[in-house]
Specification:
By secondary structure, the protein is mainly α. It is built from eleven helices and no strands. It has one domain: Up-down Bundle (Heme Oxygenase, Chain A), CATH 1.20.910. InterPro entries: UCP07580.
């Protein structure tokens, strides 16, 4: 499917060029749903490097710990890819959007720094996470030589997935209940900024594809979203199972308990499915769900920082 999308992009005629001489095809000018007054805030937080988080830092539960460790191990290389992708568009952006890309880049650099430290702690507990990092790099190597719009659409898909997970973490306290407090704060801080910049990459996409037809824009980002999310989610499951095997689980037991954790209790994947699926619909924009109150809630004093479950 990825090869087909790439071929479509490479041979597609400019949207404004009509098949009928002298007749100009109508090109929709896409509008952003990002609130005009919304700004990205760089929270340069450095978490306690000497805090003795336990091996099973999430509720003394190896399954929950393995899932979040799998996600964390994938982040540094993925976030570097996001930064590199946006850099290829930065020169052509209007000033406000270019400034937001700069803030986004700083946020992602900070996320990488803290998750590198987090991943070192995971390794210090005896887990081998190098294969996870190598797997992410192998997946990203497939983007080499693709049209830059292809890589931007991949970034949209992964940023949307990150924002949906992040919203779940902040809205429902059950997902981090019982977790080591420093580790939980790393995830809440990261989640807050993922929600805050959830529309930035999509707005760059709207600007970069402003001369495309609405159909070409929709087809490209929806197909890539379905393809990339499936691959990324599948790889995270594979890698979490691998971490559980390092804890002595059989493969069948690891798979059974991980699926129960993701889809039954607490069941984050089940609860977030329709919110994720919004990216497959025409007219999608991340800020059609306004989460600014959620961001402010987390930025308030800690006692008030967690919203009640819906």
């Amino acid at each position: 499917m990825g090869e087909q999308i790439t071929r479509d992009l490479e041979r597609a005629e400019p949207a404004s060029k009509s098949a009928f001489p002298g007749i100009k095809t109508r090109v929709d000018k896409p509008a952003s749903a990002t609130p005009a007054e919304h700004e990205l805030i760089v929270r340069d937080v450095r978490f306690d490097r000497d805090h003795p988080s336990p091996r099973w830092w999430h509720s003394n539960d190896p399954v929950a710990t393995a899932w979040y460790n799998s996600v964390s191990a994938s982040l540094p290389r993925g976030e570097a890819f996001f930064i590199d992708t946006l850099r290829t568009f930065r020169e052509d952006l209007p000033p406000k959007l270019a400034q937001e890309v700069k803030a986004f880049t700083t946020q992602e650099v900070n996320h990488t720094r803290e998750h590198v430290a987090f991943n070192r702690l995971v390794s210090a507990h005896g887990y081998n996470v190098e294969s996870i990092e190598q797997g992410i790099q192998a997946m990203l190597d497939l983007t080499e030589g693709r049209p830059k719009e292809f890589n931007l659409a991949i970034t949209i898909a992964l940023e949307h997935f990150a924002a949906v997970i992040s919203r779940q973490l902040l809205v429902d306290p059950r997902y981090l209940a019982g977790a080591d407090p420093v580790a939980a704060d790393v995830w809440r801080w990261h989640a807050t900024e993922e929600i805050e910049h959830k529309g930035l990459v999509y707005d760059v996409w709207l600007h970069a594809t402003r001369d495309w037809s609405s159909w070409k824009r929709y087809k490209t980002r929806a197909l890539i979203a379905a393809l990339i999310t499936k691959k990324y989610f599948g790889n995270r499951i594979r890698d979490a199972i691998g971490l559980l095997e390092q804890d002595g689980f059989t493969r069948s037991k690891a798979k059974r308990e991980l699926y129960a954790f993701l889809w039954w209790k607490p069941g984050m994947m089940r609860r977030m499915f329709f919110e994720w699926a919004a990216i497959l619909l025409p007219g999608f924009h991340p800020w059609k769900r306004d989460d600014r109150a959620l961001i402010r809630k987390f930025d308030s004093p800690y006692a008030d920082a967690v919203m009640p479950a819906e």
